[in-house]
Design a protein that fits this description.
Blueprint: E1 13-17, H1 23-32, E2 36-41, H2 45-54, H3 63-69, E3 72-75, H4 82-91, E4 100-103, H5 114-118, E5 122-128, H6 137-141, E6 146-150, H7 156-165, E7 169-172, H8 178-205, H9 211-229, H10 237-240, H11 243-256, H12 261-277, H13 283-293
Parallel strand pairs: 1-2, 1-3, 3-4, 4-5, 6-7
Antiparallel strand pairs: 5-6
Length: 318
């Protein structure tokens, strides 16, 4: 006997307000599920190109006209623009009773849609935990992608069904937890891009011709180990307590890439704290290391911690 299937929403006319990297990809995924994109709004040339590539034949119209034509409206604008957009659409009478209004912001739940809800809209917050390129590859990447879902209880099944139709996996996030949820994703994904880009730049300076090829296997293994084992996957000089090596790193970064020093020190301090807390960094090795990390001023041409009592500053408040 087949297992009962997830309830499927009726086939809907879909509109997109904000043709950035996310909206056209989600609308294209909904089209594959049988829904019908009918209108999209976009201002920049890049937005118009994305809409034409991912939603061919779908007319570009102003936001109010998107709402006139669509039963399901995707609001895919930057987080800071979302409250004003919702307020403006509600005040101008663009919102229709019974219309599904979906935003894709990780920061907000459904409360940001309250002006539209008072006008009769059905509010959903569906945030794909994925990075987007603005190309067709994004539609494929939605397969198995987790979505942070927040919705009124009576719309929960509809919200989850839409996510499943786009190829995603719904993950319920309470309204009050949305900012923390979004901060966690930004910490992992956005900062990862910065770290990798900096690492590739430094490798090029060191003479590595193909830093992406060198980093690919290493970072892939590190990510896999971290997802499987958490802090137990920590390796490297900070987790080992190699204060002299860390001091040498700081000196080299000051010489060749001073803009990276603050980030290196911040991440090294955090790594040291976590390694200590999980028993990976031996306390007897931590003192010199914390001295190196205290303010990043330790010389690399002598023993770690020789600029003063080892760890004198770094131990305060620990």
């Amino acid at each position: 006997m087949n297992a009962p299937s997830q309830p499927r929403p009726a086939r809907l006319a879909v509109g997109v307000v904000g043709a950035g990297r996310v909206g056209p990809a989600l609308a294209a995924a909904l089209r594959l599920a049988g829904h019908r994109p009918v209108a999209v709004s976009g201002v920049s040339d890049a937005s118009r190109r994305r809409a034409a590539a991912l939603l061919p034949g779908v007319p570009l119209v102003p936001p109010a006209q998107v709402l006139q034509r669509a039963e399901l409206v995707l609001l895919t604008v930057p987080d800071d623009a979302l409250p004003g957009l919702v307020q403006g659409l509600a005040e101008t009478g663009a919102v229709r009773p019974g219309q599904l209004l979906v935003h894709t912001s990780g920061r907000y739940g459904t409360a940001v849609l309250d002006p539209a809800r008072r006008a009769g809209a059905l509010p959903l917050a569906l945030h794909p935990a994925m990075t987007f390129t603005g190309t067709s590859v994004d539609v494929d990447r939605l397969a198995g992608c987790s979505f942070g879902v927040t919705a009124p209880e009576e719309l929960r099944l509809a919200a989850e069904a839409l996510v499943i139709e786009m190829g995603g996996e719904p993950e319920w996030i309470e309204e009050a937890a949305r900012p923390l949820y979004h901060a966690a994703l930004a910490l992992g994904a956005n900062h990862l891009v910065t770290l990798v880009a900096q690492s590739m730049e430094l490798l090029r300076q060191a003479g590595v011709a193909a830093p992406d090829r060198m980093l690919g296997p290493l970072l892939g293994a590190a990510l896999d180990n971290a997802l499987r084992s958490g802090d137990a996957a920590l390796t490297g000089p900070v987790a080992r307590g190699d204060a002299g090596t860390v001091a040498a790193h700081v000196a080299e970064l000051r010489k060749h890439a001073p803009a990276t020093v603050a980030g290196y020190l911040a991440m090294a301090r955090t790594t040291a704290d976590r390694a200590l807390a999980h028993g990976l960094l031996k306390p007897e090795l931590a003192e010199d290391l914390l001295g190196v990390l205290a303010d990043g001023s330790t010389r690399a041409d002598g023993p770690a911690g020789t600029d003063g009592p080892a760890g004198a500053e770094g131990d305060s408040g620990r």
